[in-house]
Write a structure and sequence with these properties.
single chain; about 525 residues; alpha/beta; Phosphoenolpyruvate Carboxykinase, domain 1; 2 domains; binds oxalic acid; binds manganese (II) ion
Length: about 525
């Protein structure tokens, strides 16, 4: 502890009382005593993140430093802050933290592969934040902690204290989340949403790993009985988490992975599951994981019975549960795997245009990976809301640091080298536009994923879709064949063509900003219609 104390002092942290990696039970006690934490009927720690109940991407800033500036994809995702302003924010956070009676210091790793893992230190005042990072980082053993040494990356979480927009025009509000790659530091002011820390680590990984020839990815991963690994990409609600949880396969991780020369590793030691409308019937693994040790953020519970009402989104739709990976029954430890055999890109296409499954060429895989397409399904079944297409490069644009094509090229190169197959799976609409069509039942999507894993679609006969140029398998075990070709399910084939062309146009429009960097071959692999 003396070594840690000295290290903290060298960072400017002079608080007399610090607790380093305290056990969850102690963090429960402090959270209940000092920050209105409560224990739910199943033993989780119910907490509130205050005003901010989601990430604040518009308040994220990256230090523009001559050493890294040329590497960074500057723009809407990565906005600049100068070093002096970063240092002012850092000092503000440190000064505030120094006014506290007690701080938590949580040390852990990002990455299950000891060859590539980075050492993270989180300094925070809230017990719930400490428990969150305890759950989300790869937990060091007591022996690891004894020789932990200097961290590679330090997070100063002063989220209860606001940023000061008067300091500089680059601070746009009272929330400021700043990263300096050179200093290996993340400063959080004005938001207590715990996910900022998780994604702050992921952003750092997204910067560092490509420099070592390692590909970071926003995806889930699982492994079959023969050691065959699949990566599953998809934006919110498209099935990335639900479909990675598969009784017949081991879960490597549900959100963030890296692909190295040896295979893949999970970056995290836990999950941060969306829990609104959670039910024991539909998501038994996640439901069962919400017990002692789990942080339940912004959920509503009954004061008397402490039963959580997962349907109550009055605090936020973004109710989250953070728990260690070992709370999931078939999680794999250590959370690493071999080179992936299958890359599955989920798109939740509410327009009912994309086929339930398509086999992708490497160029198409790159195109659809860079596109990162989905639609907003809300209200779709009722037909009350016109869905909107949504694109997020590499299925996680908000966390990219280099230009998207850098990650896409690395993915394509690895897929080629290791013979991975790629698939586009539509988990969305079927048989007509929103309002007239229906959502593809999840059991059919599960059957598609099972067929991919069984190799049943690798070489089966397929027809080429005229609009998208995708190879659509003619048969898939467990799925009625007429469902595989979407146009056949529309009562009006011309209406299908119109809708398909509209979607092709949206793809092209979105891809235009990447096509110079991506090159002609990739652009031409996109929709034709
Ligand atoms: C997350 C996200 O919280 O992707 O994991 O937004
Ligand atoms: Mn995520």
């Amino acid at each position: 502890m003396l070594e840690t104390k000295k290290q903290l002092e060298s960072l400017g942290i002079t608080v007399r009382r610090t607790l380093r990696n305290p056990p969850p039970a102690q963090l429960y006690e402090y959270s209940i005593l000092h920050e209105h934490g409560a224990v739910t009927a199943t033993g989780a720690l119910a907490t509130s993140s205050g005003e901010k109940t989601g990430r604040s991407p518009r308040d994220k800033r990256i230090v523009a430093h001559p050493q890294s500036s040329g590497d960074i994809w500057w723009g809407e995702v990565n906005m600049k802050i100068d070093e002096d302003t970063f240092m002012l924010n850092r000092q503000r956070a440190v000064d505030y933290l120094n006014t506290r009676d007690l701080l938590y210091v949580i040390d852990g790793y990002a990455g299950w592969d000891p060859k590539y893992r980075i050492k993270i230190r989180v300094i925070c005042e809230r017990a719930y934040h400490a428990l969150f990072v305890h759950n989300m980082l790869v937990r060091p053993s007591m022996a690891d902690l004894a020789v932990f040494g200097e961290p590679d990356y330090v997070i100063y979480n002063a989220g209860k204290f606001p940023a000061d927009p008067e300091i500089s025009p680059s601070i746009g509000s009272r929330t400021s989340v700043n990263i300096s790659f050179e200093r290996g530091e993340l400063v959080i002011l004005g938001t207590q949403y715990a996910g900022e820390m998780k994604k702050g680590v992921f952003t750092m990984i997204n910067y560092l790993m490509p420099r070592q020839g390692v590909l970071p990815m926003h995806c889930s991963a699982n492994e079959g009985a023969r050691g065959d690994v699949s990566l599953l990409f998809g934006l919110s609600e498209s099935g990335k988490t639900a479909l990675a949880t598969d009784r017949t396969r081991m879960l490597i991780g549900d959100d963030e992975h890296c692909w190295t020369g040896d295979g893949i590793f999970n970056i995290e030691g836990g999950c941060y599951a969306k829990s609104v409308h959670l039910s024991a019937d539909h998501q038994p693994e996640i439901y069962g994981a919400i017990r002692f040790g789990t942080v339940l953020e912004n959920a509503v519970y009954d004061d008397r019975t402490r039963q959580v009402d997962y349907r109550d989104a009055s605090l936020t739709e973004n109710i989250r549960a953070s728990y260690p990976l070992e709370f999931i029954p078939n999680a794999k430890f250590p959370s690493v795997g071999g080179h992936p055999k299958h890359i599955i890109l989920f798109a939740c296409d509410a327009f009912g245009v994309l086929p339930p499954v398509s086999r992708l060429t490497p160029a198409q895989a790159t195109y659809y990976f860079i596109s990162g397409y989905t639609t907003n399904m809300e209200g779709m079944e009722a037909g009350s809301v016109e869905p909107l297409p949504y694109f997020s490069a590499c299925f996680g644009a908000e966390f990219l640091v280099w230009h998207p094509t850098r990650y896409a090229e690395m993915l394509a190169e690895r897929m080629r080298r290791h013979g991975a197959r790629a698939w586009l799976v539509n988990t969305g609409g079927l048989g007509g536009p929103p309002g007239t069509g229906r959502r593809l039942p999840i059991e059919y999507t599960r059957a598609v994923v099972d067929a991919i894993h069984a190799g049943a679609l690798d070489d089966c006969p397929a027809a080429v879709d005229p609009n998208f140029g995708l190879e659509v398998p003619a048969a898939c075990p467990g799925v009625p064949p007429e469902l595989l070709a979407p146009k056949q399910n529309w009562p009006d084939p011309e209406a299908y063509d119109r809708e398909a062309k509209r979607l092709c146009e949206w793809f092209r429009k979105h891809f235009a900003k990447y096509e110079v960097a991506a090159g002609r071959e990739i652009r031409d692999a996109g929709p034709r219609g």
